[in-house]
Every structure is written in structure tokens, then in C-alpha cells.
């Protein structure tokens, strides 16, 4: 999962269309849509204590796994629960409070190209588009490091110089099997990066 910068002189939507045209020129076919969303919760009670904010927890959903809900801590464990976990979070509001304005999601089109699955998404916060996400999966292989070079080569064919480096989640896994939670960790990192990018220009306005 990686972020693609917006092409110079183009909007987010135009850049997504440009990438989609490149994929279709390769022979990739549309296979429906996808969505990944993320809500931020902070631990209640610790806010304002000596100016420190509580630990953040991210509750995420992925349309590829409709019956699951993912709860992640930054640099911490990833809990995979069933979809009723959202109801549980409401009951835990004494411990975790929803940072309502912080919901971020990526939605877009799924493409199939031979054994590759590509998801091209527009990342939005509230009503505005904030960035572009690209998720590429090589379906026959579950050991991430075994197919990384192949993934790189394929990504270069339509992402060019914006092909990402090896994800940090791979570094921790070595030869173990790749799981849906690894994908969610990458989306969490991507969303947090996009959130931080949005905060910088505001601070610079005089």
C-alpha cells in the first residue's frame, strides 16, 4: 500500500484517472470497487493530564474483509475482531473516545491484471480529497518477501518513479506469511502520513 503524489498541474481526480488509464492500457480489467475506512479513538481520562494526549487507537474496516473489524495501535498490536466490534466501542466510550473529525477513508476501483490485484483509491477526510492510495497484491504468493521484486517490477510499469520502497511491515516479518492485518497496518501508516501533510501548511499561514 503506498501513496502516489498528485501530478503537477492536475487534481487528485485527474491523477487517479491518469493511473487508471495506464493500468487499462496494460490490460487490467475493472473488478468492482473497494473501500477502507479508519476512525481514530483516544484513551479517555488521560487527555489534558500534564498536556499529554492519550494513546491513539485506530478502528478500521476493509471491504475485502466485510465480516472483520481491525483495531490497531500505532507501533503496537493489531486486533482482528468481527464486525460487532463497532458496537463494543460505543460501550467502551468511558475508556475510548471517538475523535469525530478525524475519520479518513480511501475508496476507488479494483483492477485485476493476470495474478495481480490493484486497488486505486482516493483518500478523503470529510468532503475533501486529500491524496491517492495504491494497493497492489500478487495473489498466488503469501510470503511477502518472495514476491517483492516481482511486485516492484509490476508497480514500475504504471507508477514509474513513484514506485514505493519495501514496506516497514515486511521488515518485521521476514519469511512469515502475509496477513490482512499487514495490509491494514500499511493503510494506517498511509492515513497518518496524509493527516500530517494536511497539518503542515496550516501552521505556516501567517
UniProtKB/TrEMBL annotation:
Keywords: Activator, Nucleus, Transcription, Transcription regulation. InterPro entries: Mediator_Med20. It comes from the Eukaryota. Pfam families: Med20. GO terms for biological process: regulation of transcription by RNA polymerase II. One of its GO terms (cellular component) is mediator complex. Belongs to the Mediator complex subunit 20 family. Component of the Mediator complex. It is found in: Nucleus. Component of the Mediator complex, a coactivator involved in the regulated transcription of nearly all RNA polymerase II-dependent genes. Mediator functions as a bridge to convey information from gene-specific regulatory proteins to the basal RNA polymerase II transcription machinery. Mediator is recruited to promoters by direct interactions with regulatory proteins and serves as a scaffold for the assembly of a functional preinitiation complex with RNA polymerase II and the general transcription factors. Its main location: nucleus. GO terms for molecular function: transcription coactivator activity. It comes from Formicarius rufipectus. This is Mediator of RNA polymerase II transcription subunit 20.
Amino acid at each position: 500500500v503506498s501513496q502516489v503524489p498528485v501530478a503537477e498541474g492536475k487534481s487528485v481526480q485527474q491523477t487517479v484517472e491518469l493511473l487508471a488509464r495506464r493500468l487499462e492500457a496494460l490490460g487490467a480489467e475493472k473488478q468492482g470497487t473497494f473501500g477502507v475506512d479508519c476512525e481514530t479513538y483516544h484513551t479517555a481520562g488521560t487527555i489534558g493530564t500534564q498536556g499529554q494526549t492519550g494513546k491513539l487507537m485506530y478502528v478500521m474496516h476493509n471491504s475485502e474483509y466485510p465480516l472483520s473489524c481491525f483495531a490497531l495501535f500505532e507501533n503496537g498490536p493489531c486486533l482482528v475482531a468481527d464486525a460487532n466490534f463497532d458496537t463494543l466501542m460505543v460501550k467502551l466510550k468511558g475508556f475510548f473516545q471517538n475523535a469525530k473529525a478525524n475519520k479518513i477513508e480511501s475508496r476507488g476501483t479494483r483492477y485485476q491484471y493476470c495474478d495481480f490485484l490493484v486497488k486505486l483509491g482516493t483518500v478523503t477526510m470529510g468532503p475533501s480529497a486529500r491524496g491517492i492510495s495504491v494497493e497492489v497484491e500478487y495473489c498466488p504468493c503469501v510470503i511477502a518477501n518472495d514476491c517483492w521484486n516481482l511486485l516492484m517490477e509490476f508497480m514500475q510499469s504504471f507508477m514509474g518513479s513513484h514506485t514505493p520502497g519495501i514496506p516497514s511491515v515486511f521488515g518485521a516479518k521476514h519469511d512469515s506469511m502475509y496477513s490482512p492485518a499487514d495490509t491494514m497496518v500499511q493503510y494506517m501508516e498511509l492515513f497518518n502520513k496524509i493527516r500530517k501533510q494536511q497539518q503542515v501548511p496550516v501552521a505556516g499561514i501567517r
